[in-house]
Amino acid sequence: MARSAAVAGRFYPNCGIELRAELDLLNGAFSDVKARVVVGLMSPHAALAYSGAVAAATYARAIVPDRVIVLSPNHTGLGASVAVAKHGPFVTPMGNVPLDEEMSRRIADNCPEAVLDDLAHAEEHGVEVQLPFLLSRNPALRLTAICLRTMSCSLAESIGSVVAEIVRDCGEPVLIVASSDLNHHEPRRVAARKDRMVLERLTALDPRGLYAAAVEHHVSMCGLVPAVAMLSAARALGGRSTEIAAYGCSGDVNGDDSNVVGYAGVLISVDRRLDIIRSFQIH
């Protein structure tokens, strides 16, 4: 039973030719960027017109292997707390993305809280919006899609630990993606301050600090749990270096600085290079 595209025509074009043209334009801005192996990344999931440039800057820096795990928040409230998609493929205007049935089953079998559940994914856009970018980098990818509700930090970390163990044992490269926007619907000045707090913890590879900062400072980061799980998995897999690929907000697009949503792309690799924070300013 295929999972139909839920937000095609709203978040991105529902015509494959138009979608590829938009992606070519976005990706073309980073054609001189050299991609490298990363163990994890965070990418936004707003409409293409809003967060597409940040997502393109992020994926341009990552080699996308054949196996990808996408950790998404649960915006709809449907389905299980830890829902691993059971049936595929995920349909997109650019082609269908098959599920990685072995990886999905292993995660469901080894994480006590996880269940194979399609209801949580039926209308959820957090995974779906990542797929055009992933497909543009690797048309042969196989997907493990996991939808996560709000939960404790310790539970999110434990999910990350299970993911890391399974990735380590699979014997081939796997990319772990956390799908998340940053702070929602506050003035740019306030949002930028809150975004900076969570980005500092992300780039410090500090999942508990990230969770605590978001809770203490009321940062409405929708993918907090996916980001904590991804950071935990990346650390367990040897992640040492971080890079903020890009940062922006909805006000950059619509000119309204009174009520913005923040977007950032963060990558984690196992090399020992100095961490990279690009020249943009968060202000």
Question: How are the secondary structure elements laid out?
Answer:
Layout: H1 16-28, E1 40-43, H2 48-59, E2 67-73, E3 82-84, E4 90-92, E5 95-97, H3 101-110, E6 114-116, H4 125-128, H5 131-137, E7 142-148, H6 153-170, E8 174-179, E9 184-186, H7 188-203, H8 207-216, H9 224-236, E10 241-249, H10 251-254, E11 260-269, E12 276-277
Helix pairs in contact: 3-6, 6-9, 7-8, 8-9
CATH 2nd-level architecture = 3-Layer(aba) Sandwich
**DSSP strand content:** 15-25%
Main sheet summary: 10 strands, mixed
Mean pLDDT: 95
Distance N terminus to C terminus? 46 Å
Give unreliable regions as ranges: 274-281
Percent of residues in helical segments? 25-40%
Superfamily (CATH H level) name = LigB-like
CATH topology: Protocatechuate 4,5-dioxygenase, Chain B
Task: Give a written overview of the molecule.
The protein has 283 residues and is an alpha/beta fold. The chain has one domain: 3-Layer(aba) Sandwich (Protocatechuate 4,5-dioxygenase, Chain B). Helix content is 38%, strand content 21%. The chain contains ten helices and twelve strands. The strands form two sheets. Strands 1, 2, 3, 6, 7, 8, 9, 10, 11 and 12 form a ten-stranded mixed beta sheet that branches. A hairpin with a 2-residue loop joins β4 and β5. α3 crosses α6, α6 packs across α9 and α7 runs antiparallel to α8. The longest helix is centred in the middle third of the chain and has 18 residues. The chain is globular, with a radius of gyration of 17 Å. The C terminus is likely disordered.
